[in-house]
Amino acid sequence: MNPAAAEAAFAQNRADRGASYEALTVIEDALGAPLPGREAAWLESVIEALDVLIAALTEQARHNREPGSLLSQIAIDHPRLIVRIEELEDELDELCVAEQALRNQITEDGTLANSDLLEIRTRLAELDTQYRLHRARETDLIYEATTVDIGGKG
User: Fold this and answer.
1) CATH number of the domain within which 142 lies
2) Is residue 31 in some structural domain?
3) Residue 95 structural domain
4) 74-100 exposure pattern, b = at least 16 Cβ within 10 A, e = fewer
């Protein structure tokens, strides 16, 4: 990977991961917010947070598949990592679909009972954990290929 292309690819990857990290912190804030007596406000904050996260993850997935992306360059320079890169791409797609399905469930159901709110909170926490693990695996792969630490928030 030539230095200019590498710099641009790292910058895009960090920007995408930064956007998704910021969206993830909003989800985590919603997870920790009190529910009793403010169910509608809580749902509204969750929907807004999911919209931002879904947009960030979709953009990240799109950029990851571009020819000049960091993962594309790693695949060219380190063909042994292609299967892991494809797994990461598929995993990110599945997370986008799951986040969108949860968002659709919230908006299609209308008024939800407290048990449904607990279910939504639990599902959000599960998706949060899945995405954090995805980010860690992606960071490991990038470091393995480039020995560049992209940082936990980038």
Assistant:
1) 1.20.120
2) yes
3) 3-146
4) bbeeeeebeebbeebeebbeebbeebb
Region 121-133: mean pLDDT is: 93
Q: What is the pTM of this model?
A: 0.85
Q: Is pLDDT of 154 > 80?
A: no
**What pLDDT score does 73 carry?**
92
Side chain identity at residue 57, one-letter code: L
If one counts the domains in the chain, the total is 1
- The answer to the question of residue 34 being in a domain is yes
Q: Which residue has the tokens 């009793």?
A: 36
119's tokens: 């279910």
- Distance, in Å, from the CA atom of 117 to the CA atom of 142, rounded to the nearest integer, reads 37
> How confident is the model at residue 100, as a pLDDT?
93
